[in-house]
Every structure is written in structure tokens, then in C-alpha cells.
Amino acid sequence: MSIAQLTGVVLKNYNKFYYVQDSSLNIYECKPRGKLKDFILSGDRVMFTPLEDGRGLLESILPRVNQLYRPKVANVDTVLIVMAHTKPAPDLMLLDRLLFLVAYSRMEAYIVLNKCDLPLDETVRKIQNYYGRHGFTLFNTSVTNRTGIEQLLQAIAGKVAVFAGPSGVGKSSLLNAMLDSALVKTGDLSEKVGRGKHTTRHVELFPLTNGAVMVDTPGFSSLDLPRLRREELGDYYPDFQDYSTECRFGNCLHHREIECGVKQAVRDREIADFRYNNYIHILEEVIANERCYR
Prior knowledge:
Layout: E1 6-14, E2 17-22, E3 27-32, E4 45-50, E5 55-61, E6 67-69, E7 72-74, E8 78-84, H1 92-104, E9 108-114, H2 122-133, E10 137-140, H3 149-155, E11 160-164, H4 171-182, H5 188-192, E12 205-207, E13 213-215, H6 241-244, H7 261-267, H8 273-293
Parallel strand pairs: 3-5, 8-9, 8-11, 9-10, 11-13
Antiparallel strand pairs: 1-2, 1-4, 2-3, 4-5, 6-7, 12-13
């Protein structure tokens, strides 16, 4: 009698074993068949055959929704872009670059304004006023007084989430606070996914009690732009969409064209100057890259 295969998510690779969590939050120590080990990433959804004593045999990798290359992790649902209220002050150019990269990678972005127990930098007001008004999801958090931690955990329930953002904004402290609140800690489960046992070569995912999975390594350590046509860039700016329908030209780049709905929205202060200027900076980089690809 054959054993029914199960589906699961790869949490980590340690010592040639792959630790896979099934839909019931059980974790299996699995060996892959054949050369499958050369292709498995943390975050991969896989089919595996459960064996005795919590072991299993990896049979196949299911199609990936997306993949990050630095770090190597698959099937990320949500990127938590962290900026600090102060020390360091938010970098709006970096924020817009990350928002574009996240959208291009078919993930959702949450903007996390950390260290909200500290005095407010004026740039934070710009983020709250502009991005909040245009439908982006924002959270104010503090590890010091635990503001916003539970709300953030609720927002990522059932999702695979990774942090992104500059150094010094508190990504590691936020991750530790979230894991301290909700890391699965039952019996041999915690032994199998015990923190500190992974190597620097591999990404590790931590299962939370709300069904979320947190990636232990910040995403988008490479901020290189993907290869795309200049006409495509505006598609990844949801706050431009209502205004781009007013453009005279269907392939408008919102740059030097006449009768551009987006530029008119900038003049009308519907789109912030900084947001538009950052878009132009990225657009010019995309155009420069196009010339290199020829």
C-alpha cells in the first residue's frame, strides 16, 4: 500500500536535510530524491512522502510564484519595507526603489515606520501623508514599547514575509520581537527549527503560530534594476494609474511628453514632487540599461 504524498513548505536546509512544514504545522526532516537537492530553495512548496519518526522523502518542487536571488528564497508573499522615524532618517529614493522592485517581483509591500517611540523626522510625515493617501499599507512600530507588533503579525497571518530596508532601522530587532511573540514552540518542533543552527549559506524560515512564515534574512540585498522596457516602468506605480489615463500618448513615459496626465498631477500636487523625481531617476536608469542590452 503506497503512502499518500503531502504538500509542504521548505523552512531551511541544514546538514543536507530539508525541513518541511505541512499544512498542519508538522515539520519533517526530509532527504531529496536524486538531483532534486540542486534546485531546492527555502520557501519552495514541495511534494513529499512522510516516513517514520518525523522524516520524509522530497519528491518534487511545485511551480514558484516568484524568487529572490539575494537572498535565495522562493514564494515570498509580503515584503516589509522598514524605515526609521529617525536615526537614520528615511531615504525616500531607496523607499521608492524598493516599492518598484517589490511590485515587479509580484509581491505586496507594507511600509513599516519603526522606532516610533523616538522624535518624528519630517520625512516620516511625507511618507505618512503621501503613501497613506494613495493606498499603500503603513505601520508604525516600536520594539521598545511593542507598539504595532501585534498589528504587523495580524497583517502577515498565513503569508511568507521578508524584511527589506537600510541598515540601522531595526529590522533584526523587529524580527526578534515578532518571533518572541509568535514563534511555534511545541515539543520537537522547536528543536527541528531551532534558531542559530542554520549556516550563512542558506536562508531560514521561521513558522509563526498565526500561519505566517518569517524569512530570517533581509530581502533585496541587491538593488539592481531588472531588465524591462522603459514603457513598462509606470505600470508599477499604482499612484500614477488614475492620472496616466489622461495622457495624450498611450506609451507616455511621463517625462518630456506634452499633455501628460501624471505631470499635470504633479503640478496639481496630487503626486508629490519627491515621488515623481524618484520615478524620473529610476526611468533614466532603465533607459541607460536598455542601451547596454543592445
